[in-house]
Amino acid sequence: MNQRIKIICSCRMGPGTFEAKFVPLCKVDIVEEIIVVRKEKGPDIPKLKYAVLPKICYNPIINFIIASYIVGKLARKYKVNFILAYHYVPHYYIAFIASLLSSKPYILGQTGRDDQLLAKHPIKGMFLRYIIKKAYQLNVPGSESFNFWKSIGIHRVDILHSAIDTDRFLPDNSEKIYDFLYIGRLEKYKGVQYLLQAFSNVVKEYPNATLCIVGYGSYENEIKSLIYELNLSNKVSFCGFQADTYSYYRKSKIFVMTSETEGLPCSLMEAMSCELLCISSLVGNIGDIIKDEITGFIFPSGDILKLQEIMIKSLINYRELTQIRENARILIENEHSYSSAIRVWRNILIHF
Question: Of 120, 172, 200, 310, which residue is the least packed, with the fewest Cβ within 10 Å?
Fold first, then answer.
C-alpha cells in the first residue's frame, strides 16, 4: 500500500499519557508524520515533531484564537489527512475552527468524562454536541462512554484509548517495599482522601502496613494535612511527581484507585500490566478492565468500609491471588497494549 498519512494534533497531556497516545499511532506503518501543536515540546518519538506555540498562548483566550489559526494553517501547509484533538477544552473547539480554516476533517479523542457531563446539558451542551457530530470520528476510553455517545445520537464512535507498553511494564520479582500504591493526579475527584481514611483503619489491624502515594496536583496540601491528622506520617511515603513510575510498581503489591469519576486511567492499566493486585472504584469505564475477583476488585466510589474490607482481604491473601494478577496482565496485553491500539488505528486510517 502506497498510502501515507499525515496528521496534525492539538492536545494537552502529561508525561506517560502522551506516550500512551502517540507511540502506538506513530508505529502504524502507513503513518508518515505527526505534527503536535502545543505550548512546549514533549518526548522524542519517531515520526512526531512539535510546533511550539508562542508564549502569549499561556493566556487561555489568546491561546484558543492563535492555536486554532496555527493548526489550520499548518494543516494546509503540510497537507495533512486530518486534524486530531485530545481533551475537549479547548482542543475539540480548536480542531473544529482549524477544520473550517483548512477544510480538513477532524477526529476527537475523549480523555476524561467532563465532555459527557457537558453534553448532557440541553442548552450548555449544544455547541459541544454539534462539534462532535461534525467530527469524522470520536474515539472514547471504553464501553460506558461508547454507549453514552450512541444514546445521544453520535454514531461515528470507536473505543480507542491510551495504550500500555507491555514490554516495559512487566511483572517483577523484586522485594516489595510497599503494600499499597497510588499513582495519579492529586485532585479532589481522585478520592485519595477515601484511600487514606480506609488505610488508617487497615493500620489499626495491621500496624506494619505501608502505603506509597506518587503524584501531584491542586489537592496536594489537603492530602498531606490528612496524612498528618490521621497519624499516618510514618506509614505513608509521599513521593510527589515521579517520571519513572515503573520503579514504584516494581516495589509494590497492591494498587488502589479511589476516583469519583474516570475515563480509563493509564496508571491502573500499567499496574495491571505489572501484575499488581488492583483495587478500584467502579466509575466511568473501569468496569471494562476490572472484572471483580477475576482481574481485580471493585467497590462503590466513596464506600470507605467496603474499600477497607477489600484492602485487608488483598493484604492477607496476596500470595493466593496470583491468578487474578495474571488475568489482569493478559487482559491488558490483549485489549490495551501498543499492538492492540496499532490494529485499531490502522483500521481507521486505511479509510483516508
Answer: 120
Intervals of CATH 3.40.50.2000 along the chain = 5-163+337-349, 178-335
CATH number of the domain located at residue range(s) 5-163+337-349 in this protein: 3.40.50.2000
Checking if the pLDDT of 105 tops 80, the result is: yes
Residue 233 one-letter amino acid: S
Q: Is pLDDT above 80 for 1?
A: no
Please give the CATH topology (third level) of the domain spanning 178-335. Rossmann fold (3.40.50)
Cα–Cα distance for residue pair 129/96, rounded to 1 Å: 12
Which residues neighbour 159 within 8 Å (Cβ) at sequence distance 6 or greater?
139, 140, 141, 142, 143, 145, 146, 344
> CB–CB of 83/8 below 8 Å?
yes
Residue 252's contacts (CB-CB under 8 Å, 6 or more residues apart) are 176, 177, 178, 179, 180, 181, 212, 276
Please, what is the average pLDDT of the chain? 96
Q: For the whole model, what pTM was predicted?
A: 0.94
**Pairwise CA distance, residues 159 & 152, whole Å:** 16
- Between CA 317 and CA 184 the distance in angstroms is 25
pLDDT at 2: 59
- Max CA distance (Å), the chain: 65
Cell numbers at 278, concatenated: 488492583
CA dihedral in degrees (270, 275, 280, 285; nearest 10)?
A: 50
